[in-house]
Every structure is written in C-alpha cells, then in structure tokens.
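Re: weekly structure request thread

Next one in the queue (146 aa):
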Amino acid sequence: MALATSGSNATSTTLAQGVADAIGAKVKTDKWALKLDGASIGSELTRTQVSVLENRVAPGGHFGWHSHPGASIVIVKSGVSTFYRGDDPSCTPQVHPAGTAYVDPGGAVHIARNEGDVELVLLVTRITPEGVAPRLDEPDPGSCPF
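Done, posted below.
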C-alpha cells in the first residue's frame, strides 16, 4: 500500500483569495497570445477560486508528492525550485531559478524541492474550481530515487 507523502520544511501562507462566476481573457499582440478560460461545463454553475500564496521551503525541504485540480502560475522569488513530475520515468528535474516563472497545468502528480542552500520562496497564483480542495496529497509514484 502506497501512502500519501507530506511536505518537509515547507510552509504556505494564503495572501489573498477571491471567487468569480467565470474567468477569462483572450489577448493577442504581434508575437504573443494568451487565452484563459475558466467556466462551468454543463448546467450546474461552478465558480472559479483564485488564490495567491507565498510558499517557503528551507534548504533540503520539499512539498511532498501532490496534485492540484486546477492550474498554478508560479514565480520563483528566491532560491531554486526543482520540479519533478510523477509520470516521468527518467525523473528529469525542471530547474527554475529566482526571477523565473512556470506553470503547473494541474492534474499531474508532482513534487517541488529545494535542492539549493538558500530558502526557496514561491509566489503562486492558483486557479481552481470553487469548493474543491486546492491540493491533493498523493502517494510516491516511485519514479524518483528520493
């Protein structure tokens, strides 16, 4: 039996949150485009929860294996975020240093670790359905040696 994994030396603080009936944007310039569409599917209204968090991870710490029911836009404020996907049999890290950003598209089991020697600080904008747990602890998928 595989058990859910918990984080280590990691904290998460909600800075702000709000709810919208629908959320969307479509913007296009000469060389760039963005489409964001969060809306109900079917006849039952499901609103969209938007949360902004500050996550801190001490050197050697991690968030534990988990997934999200929606997308997260992550800005690395300090340190280095080393991100692993549970469905990657080669356990190839995605390394994101301070000053970069990345998107966790949601639905995938993953872990973010601080493999550096300074505190990792992430600012996260999470977009999820209202009333659904924004984080689901997941069992270790066994794809990485740690």
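The first strand starts at residue 8 and ends at 20. The chain has one domain: 11-137.
Next request, please.
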